[in-house]
Amino acid sequence: MERLPVGKIIQGLRxxxxxxxEELAEVLxxxxxxxxxxxxxxxxxxxxxxxxxxxxxxISIDCLFGFSNDLSEEEYLSYLQVGSALMELNGLxxxxxxxxxxxx
Length: 104
What we know:
globular; about 0% strand
């Protein structure tokens, strides 16, 4: 199974902002080891951190998952409806499986 590009995206955003792993860790309230593991693809940030990370870098959560805005509004709404339905039925696990299928 292919891993989501979250860590590499965070790494690129961090470097573009000119901050260290330690500085980002302090902002997010995590260890610098956690940032390193995210960036190396060994683990993902806790789901509750995604909005905080996105807000800090002034991007959408979609961007953190490697999604672009190349979808039409109709396609976007369709995917959102399917993802929402899966989340209602299966919780976050269903939503993550759906995301993995979409990008893999």
